[in-house]
# Entry
Amino acid sequence: MPIRRPTPELIAAKRWEIRRRYARKAKVGKRTRSMAAIRLAELTRWLHDVTGAGVEIEPSEGSVLIARIFAHHMGALPDMPRRVSAWLDRYAPWLSLASREVLIAEVAAKPLKWSADVLAWKLGLKDEQRSRLKIRTIGAIDCSKEQRAERRKAKRKERDAARYRAKRCSPNISI
# Structure
């Protein structure tokens, strides 16, 4: 029985699948997503919790600050003007066209970056809400950086102790 060679279409499909698999894998020590994308996802969770999912924000000074924070975080992502414009269309349609253009130009010139605690103060994010929404890159106004570090350390110590106990108690079966 002769050995059949794979068709060129099958070879191309397998090569495509291999390229796709390798492209998906993260490099060792590198994030799979940028810090801006992670923080943007967390900001969106916070906004949906405060205003409701997909609901436009009410026009006020605070709302302009929120729009500005989101825009500056989108400044680090590709295709920034389109992203900012789409976000403003969805959440702040009341913002005038001139204000939008000024905001986009400001972000394009120099996107601002905020530390975790400064951003927490701007948003008024409390520790309970931060924990509930699983926000990791933004601080809390009622819990300092040192307190959060101590809490992480205690959780890690507890987790490692549980892992150690489970390892010691597991039966070693040898034949």
In short: The mean pLDDT is 87. Residues 14 and 20 are 10 Å apart (CA to CA). The first helix runs from residue 8 to 24. The chain has eight helices and no strands.
